[in-house]
Design brief:
Layout: H1 4-20, E1 23-31, E2 34-38, E3 44-46, E4 52-54, E5 57-61, E6 66-71, E7 76-79, E8 84-93, E9 98-107, E10 109-113, H2 116-119, E11 124-128, E12 131-135, E13 139-145, E14 148-155, E15 157-162, E16 167-171, E17 178-181, E18 187-190, H3 218-231, H4 239-246, H5 248-256, E19 260-272, E20 278-287, E21 292-302, E22 305-315, E23 320-329, E24 332-343, E25 348-357, E26 364-372
Parallel strand pairs: 9-11
Antiparallel strand pairs: 1-4, 1-6, 2-3, 2-5, 5-8, 6-7, 7-10, 8-9, 10-13, 11-12, 12-15, 13-14, 14-17, 15-16, 17-18, 19-20, 19-26, 20-21, 21-22, 22-23, 23-24, 24-25, 25-26
Keywords: Signal
Protein name: FecR protein domain-containing protein
InterPro entries: FecR (IPR006860)
């Protein structure tokens, strides 16, 4: 028996290590600096598309960086720039379709669309500096700003249990879908999303129990304006466009569409640093069954040669989250970004792009576009 103890101890350690290092999901988009740190040994790795993330990982995004992860149960986690997320637990049994998940947002912001775990009644929680969020629905967003926590529920509902055990409920069948919780525990509920979610605040409930709307909460607005000035965050799209794509009806519209739709440029406005632009073409394939943009291309000519960019990404409800996978200008390698949103009941896609040569960034091109099926 004495000789069996080291063997048993070793097996237990291996079992624990294997369980802790079980896959939690896959990286489906990694733009910029996206790092994963193994909590068991502090080893660091740069995440790229299709890389596995594990139940021991702490994930960090840098300046002008973002990431998206498809989790084991089909859930989605989109991590914003300058964020730190700890995957404390993510377990899912594909045979029983049961599991539990607990993640912790330490810095920055995330958007999450919950998967089968929550749909089948499992435990799914998101820890924040002010309390723990229990999920009653599918689509929500969290942003940390200077110690405060901003919440937005786009579909479904959440319950945030504060450190004093008070519960803040938001979303479906609740009076409010948006809130700010200060570092000291004050609750400000709103009828519109804060500007950290690319919208204006137009109503506020300072005490958490008053449903009367008031125009423009000045204290909150000043704090958010300061955040935007510090980080350089700017609205890409007009408020009217954002309202169109963030409405609850869009969720239903996406769910109703089936198959792959191919969009092409119907109008555009493009400028290049090296001359007039000709022969512009842009395509985008949108797979509504899987919620992805499997491929897209941009091509046009200027005095320096042909610009070409290939991109792919994910339907992220408020936007199409896209990443350029290859770009070139003539014989020179290039890089860039593409941003886009749905309009007119998914019948149009509008957005903009920026491209530049890697070794000579002064050679660049940018433009806006509208795509139709």
């Amino acid at each position: 028996m004495k000789h069996l103890l080291p063997v048993i101890t070793t097996l237990l350690c291996v079992s624990f290590y294997t369980q802790a290092n079980d896959p939690a999901g896959k990286t489906i988009l990694a733009r910029g600096s996206v790092l994963a740190v193994d909590g068991s040994n502090e080893q660091q790795r740069q995440l790229q598309r299709r890389d596995t993330v594990f139940g021991v990982d702490r994930i960090t995004t840098g300046e002008k960086s973002k990431a998206q992860f498809s989790m084991l149960d089909g859930g989605l986690i989109a991590l914003k720039e300058n964020s730190v997320l700890n995957i404390a637990n993510y377990e899912f049994n594909d045979n029983t379709q049961q599991g539990s998940a607990s993640i912790e947002l330490l810095k920055g912001g995330l958007r999450s669309i919950s998967g089968v775990i929550k749909k089948n009644g499992g435990s799914y929680s998101v820890k924040t500096p002010v309390g723990s969020i229990g999920i009653r629905g599918t689509h929500f967003e969290v942003q940390l700003v200077k110690g405060d926590v901003f919440l937005a529920v786009w579909d479904g509902a959440i319950d945030l249990t504060l450190e004093n055990n008070n519960v803040v409920s938001l979303g479906d069948n609740e009076a409010f879908s948006f809130a700010q919780i200060t570092a000291t525990g004050e609750v400000f509920k709103t009828t519109r999303a804060a500007r950290v979610f690319d919208q204006n605040i137009v109503a506020i409930d300072p005490k958490g129990d008053n449903e009367e709307e008031t125009e423009q909460a000045s204290i909150t607005e000043v704090e958010v304006n300061a955040f935007e000035a510090d980080t350089g965050v700017m609205d890409i799209y007009s408020e009217q466009q954002f309202q169109t794509v963030s409405s609850a009806s869009l969720v239903d519209q996406i769910a109703q569409r089936q198959g792959v739709f191919n969009y092409e440029a119907s109008s555009f406005n493009v400028n290049s640093s090296v001359g007039a632009v000709t022969d512009f073409a842009m395509t985008m394939a949108v797979d509504f069954d899987n919620g992805t943009v499997p491929d897209g291309e941009i091509s046009f000519n200027d005095a320096g040669g042909n610009w070409y960019a290939a991109y792919s990404g994910l339907i992220n409800l408020s936007e199409l989250d896209l990443a350029v996978t290859f770009a070139s200008h003539g014989n020179n390698k290039a890089e860039g970004d593409v941003d886009a949103i749905f309009l007119n009941d998914l019948d149009n896609i509008t957005g903009n792009f920026n491209l530049n040569e890697i070794n000579n960034p002064d050679v660049n091109a940018s433009g806006s576009f509208k795509l139709e099926p």
